[in-house]
């Protein structure tokens, strides 16, 4: 994927795949990746030093698969007898989440997940591809039953549709050159460091609020920001971890760079997550999908899908 379509309507959470972990509290204690939040009051520097010393990067860790479901909160199996078919709507061109496969049929992470949910619920499933900006109108006019299209949950959309629990999030992360990777990033570690971000983005706002001692360098777009890191004009860049993961693993990066530190998922800046949208009041379908999402995760099918589509984890 070159997934950062952050300017798209309703997709503020994607960058903001342009929402794959709620604020830090939603991930605490859950299986999967651990989210990292910067300390608002950094710990005192060790005696005899003038500032905190960043830790040395360890060897590469295994692929991180995020977990968004708490095994202690197993949902009850809802009454599925009234469900006979689920007509999913998805987007036309947002790889690897939604795209047209070689056989001309819908493909991608969202599409495969939709089919897994239908198998779990044991109902017939159809998937129709439409332009993103038409999806909500198509749902509300009963031309489909559910939208699975990397749609970011937001107060504005909640006024028009209901959402399932999040099935992934779009975290923010730092990227550095490979010779300067840090396993953990805190505000005090970046004092005086040059950090690039997209001008006017939630990532820039987060840096201004939390990393006040870093030297912020705004850029007009992803290409300019990433080029600055490759050239060594900045020490780090900070942005949408999903698009950055694909850039790191793609040819455009020239194998220059890697993630530093862990994911940042504060919902106040980076949104509530990505959910499946259903028509307002359709609790039967919403509850069925929530139950099926938990089951697909519990059986390991979600992990299999994640590893198939994300060779470099954004978490």
UniProtKB/TrEMBL annotation:
Entries under InterPro entries matching the protein: Solute-binding_3/MltF_N (IPR001638)
Any Pfam family: SBP_bac_3
Region described as Disordered: 35-76
CDD domains for the chain: PBP2_HisJ_LAO_like
Signal peptide: 1-35
Annotated Low complexity bias: 46-66
Domain of life of the native organism: Bacteria
Name by which UniProt lists this protein: Amino acid ABC transporter substrate-binding protein (PAAT family)
Source organism (scientific name): Bradyrhizobium stylosanthis
